[in-house]
Structure prediction request, 550 residues.
Amino acid sequence: MRYLHLCIIGCLLCISSIVQAQGNSEESIIIHLNKPFYTTGENIWYTLYFPNSFKPHNLALKLALVNDEGQSLSEHFLKTGNQSHANGYFKVPYEAPSVHYHFVILGTAKLDKTKVKLGEVFIPIYSDLGDTRTHTILAETPTILTANVNDLKVDLQLGTDSWGRRDQVAATVAVTDKQGKPVSANLSISIKDVGLLEMAAQEASSIHRIPLTAEHQAANLAEEIYINGKVEDNQGTSWQSTILAVYSPTEKQFFYTKSNPDGRFALKIPDLQGNRMLQFMDYQRTDLKVTLDDNITLDSPPSTSTKSKITQYLAWSQMRKKIYQLYNSLEDPISRLAPAINAIELESDQRFAMKDYEKFDDLSIFFNEIVTPFKLRERGKRGYVARMFNPAQQIRTFYKGSPLFIVDGLLSRDANFIYNIPIEKIDTIDLFFEMQQLKTEFGPIGNSGIVDIKTSLAEIDLPAEDAANIFPVSVLQYAIEEGQTVERTSTQPHIGPQLFWTASAQTDDKGTFPFSFTQSDDLGTFLIEISVQDENGRQATFTRFYTVNQ
Prediction:
């Protein structure tokens, strides 16, 4: 009988353990923002904490601020780098309108290369330029806050609980497990003026937790960067492109993809850093229209409500910007580091430096007078036609179709466009006509030859069909100079909603992280928020309010 009791107890313990494990098995992403809302010109700083299942992977995630119509205000990619945390920023343009923006975190499905929405939170952005009296508060939607995430114990040690304005405050974060053992952990810290922020937000907290579903698991996501979009013809019908070429003039390199019967494509590109202009061109047709589109569904926007103090907050924000201008400084400066550029420099089969030749009336006459494999000739109503000769011993005939022209990094097959370039504005012309180099260096798009033209023109009047398929693309975010601080004179006011932010701190072997900040000139209530995650994926959040009365 005693043996039976022990078996029953053992089974109950096993069931309890399984239930508990299932209850704790839900994976989530924690988003720690430096503030709950922003005004134009400010920086949105964020730290992301991923579940530990992300750690074996170097995932390529896309972070974007988009409006209700899906139009991007700012976006970039980041690589998780086999870590369970990442951080970055968005620079809010000064011209941004006052609306609720969707902060979306996107992965790319490993199987079909479509975008997968991992998470979404709403961020109110207000314009404090011009008349600030017409604004309503952009009410925050219900989000799952991480106030009760307590897998670890976090303590904040302060020298005193009473501070005055402009005091230098020294603090230490201590992280332990529930048994009191010091823990090595990554953490982010934000310190905010509650009185100011609650003038335009329902609350000053800015930490969110987003549960992940099974399709969001790291093992199902790609580690390469993909740009997604769609190809259509001039009638808006989806086009299945077997070879879609994409050119980056910065790298002087072509990338290739194809679209499916629905016209959708996923372009894989290298881990480039910064912004690029990419031009798309189908191998067969020039009358196609490309659109870049992640094809995701956004959550419904929250309703707005009125809050009388928002007008005062924006007026103060506007004044604060003017004060920083007066002192020739910035409230939150960012210095981007120049990215490394690996441009491919190719040696052409034939080069013409136009300064070495007598002046010709136009390019057609030039190439008829000079013996070259490239010919540009008039064909009646069709205008001009271009052809490149293949001089290979066993072939010796013209390539089919027009060669591809690259004019100051822009693509076209339009011979009339080339003819109309003022010859006196052309610096060099490089011809590529050897078949093997065309295949190796340019791929299918170069099958009819390449003509690379450099000019001194301030602006290129590219044919409309070609110009319509050029897009600015943000790839990996620019690296920035770490540890930048705002230098203030003794007479410069120290005011603003943000007192301190760090996104990538780490505790030492004692489980502690010391830091310091300067208290602002404002009186009232302030909030310290801390998010923590250790190497085993255990998480915790910490909040403390304090007041300054003198």
The first strand starts at residue 28 and ends at 33. Confidence is low (pLDDT under 50) at residues 1-24, 140-147. The first helix runs from residue 2 to 23. Helices lie at 2-23, 194-197, 309-326, 363-369, 415-419, 435-442, 464-467.
